[in-house]
Description:
281 residues; Spore Coat Polysaccharide Biosynthesis Protein SpsA, Chain A
Amino acid sequence: xxxxxxxxxxxxVICARNEEERLADCLEAVLAxxxxxxxxVDGGSTDGTVAIAEAxxxxxxxSGGRGLAFDRQLGIDRTRGDLIxxxxxxxxxxxxxxxxxxxxxxxxxxxVVQAGVAIVPNSFWTRAESEAMxxxxxxxxxxxxxxxxxxxxxxxxxxQIRFDTTxxxxxxxxxxxxxxxxxxxxxFGIGDCTVDQLHFPLFRDYVKKxxxxxxxxxxxxxxHPDRFGNMLFHLLVRYPVFRPAxxxxxxxxxxxxxxxxxxxxxLASLLRARMLPxxxx
Length: 281
C-alpha cells in the first residue's frame, strides 16, 4: 500500500465501566486525536462515568452491562468511520497515534494494528508490569494474539467477523484473535508506537484484575475446549517460566513478580470458574 495514502475517516470507541477516576483524562487525550467522531460505550456504570462523558460532549451509548465483547461490537456498530480506534479509559494516546498506527497498518497490510503499552510506573506492581510489557510485548510485526485496545481497525474486517455478543464472560481479545487467525490472508499485529496506560497501582488491584482475566479465560475455554491445554501451558509454563527468564536475561528484574502473580491468580480463577457449571448442575 502507498505510505502517502491519506488517513480515512476515523471513529474512536471508548468502552468504560465505573471509570470516573480515569475517563476525563482519557477524553482530553482522545479529543486531541481530531477523530471524526467519539463514542463512549458505558457498560453499566454505577458511578459518574456517563455524566463525565456527556460533559465532554461525546456520544454515549449504554449497553446495560452485557460484557466487554458486546460493548466493543456495540460501539463499532454505532460508528461510521472507515477506521475504528479502540481506546480504553486507562489509555493516554499521543496526538499522533492514529497517523502512526495507520502507517503501520499500511506497512504490514494489517486489518488490525495494536499499539504497545507503556505502563505508568507509579508503584512496585506497575513498574513490574512495565518491565513485563517491555520484555515480550513491544515487538512490532505480525502476531497471533494482540489486545483489542489501544488498536486501530479497518472497518471492513467486521464484514467477516464480529466480537462475540452472546456470552458476557467471553474474552474479547483472545476469542476474536483466535477466530481472526482462521480467516485466510487476514493479518494483524503490533505497531512500533506506544500508548501510556494508567493502571491502578496496588497489589489488590492486580489481584482483582487477574481474577477477572481468569474468568474470561474460563469462558474462552468453554467456548473453545480444544484450546484448554494451550491455556494451561500458557499459565503453567509460558507465564511463570519462559517469560520471567526472558525478562531477567534482558535485565528486567521486577517483571518476574508480575508474571508469577498473573499466572497464579488467573489459573486459580480459571479453574474455579470452569468448574462452576458442573458444580451447579
